[in-house]
Amino acid sequence: MIRANFSQAFDFFTVSLTVSELAKEFGKTTKDITWGITLVLMFRSVGSIAFGIAADRYGRKWPFVVNNILFIILELGTGFCQTYNQFLAVRALFGVAMGGLYGNAAGQSNCVSLYFASLTDSSHCT
What we know:
Layout: H1 2-16, H2 19-26, H3 30-58, H4 61-79, H5 84-119
């Protein structure tokens, strides 16, 4: 869960702190570039639905692994965009990956917490 939050925050500030540079690079206004941030936020729900269904069907491990690989590739891909339309497409796909990360990360962290809780004697907590 910490990795999911860190990655999301890192990405958000990486793009939002470089909006003016991205606008200059793509020949667009800063308002146009912020659509890339908006697309990430809009497509997160698509990712959570898609990867949630995959986690229910195949278990959490492999959808989580695939999602992390997709997340990394799209994060790096943002830096290699040559056109504004490529930038928007990569950011939309990144939103899908970001949305898929949270459900599986939360599920994994709950399993770890429950595992460690089962190792301790919690009879004093009643």
